[in-house]
Specification:
Length: about 280
Amino acid sequence: MDQKVAYKDFTTRLKLLVSKHPNLIATTLSNIFTMRLIGNKTHGDLAEIGIAEFINQYMYDFRSVHVGKDLYRAKTHEEDIKIISEITKVEFPVSLKAYGDGPLQLSTDKDFRMFPRLKREGKKIQGKRNIMNVFQDPVFAEFSSINVLPLIYDEKQQRCNILVFDYEKARESTAQIVREDDGRGREHPVYRFYDSDEGYVCEVRYGGAAANALQRGLWTHTKNGLKYFDSVTSGWISYSHNLVLVKLFSHALVSSGEGHESALEKIKEDIARLKRSAGLTR
């Protein structure tokens, strides 16, 4: 079993778990997005730890390891967590994204190769053969090799949708790739991918020296390209803020390791209770 098949199997199992026990993911998402009360970016980093632990606690067929920022320079993929199938022993990297409902970055294209490759083809790329030549170019190898698990949130309505971008469907459906230089609030040009109905699929943003990491690479849009996503949560799932968690963090920061050990034991007991209630004990 290769990594893409293993990742597909993982997301299928995750979707099944969520459908049977929505309260477990709702609790986890509530805790993750409560972190936005501490800081606008805090939830993204803690989502990596939280989802990794969710997998370890509730998905017995998989094991997860948080890669950590200290290993960034050694990463061979854009990964935040590593997941191992306990059945097949296949390991695969996963990049976690916590984004608002709208533009979603799938790859940073750190070496700035995608945009120049498309630029070679001119302003419009059409025809199945020409488009397949683009996708088959090594520059676009990442298009189908990245495993991105986005936690898309709508803060106003306090809801989250875990969406998986269907790279294969996007690749097969692309009918034309068009360079667009004008647009509201856009400094740099983009190449947009459209299907045969002129529906939006995804885009490659400019990545030259004048562009930062948030202005380059492979992007999509969770509203405009919704038909190229599969929802692990089968749509929006409501979450709520856990103010007790904020208080717990503040107290933990001024308490000792001994106090943390005691609190951890109580939390482990609560996780065991949740497992029993869900019938997930072995």
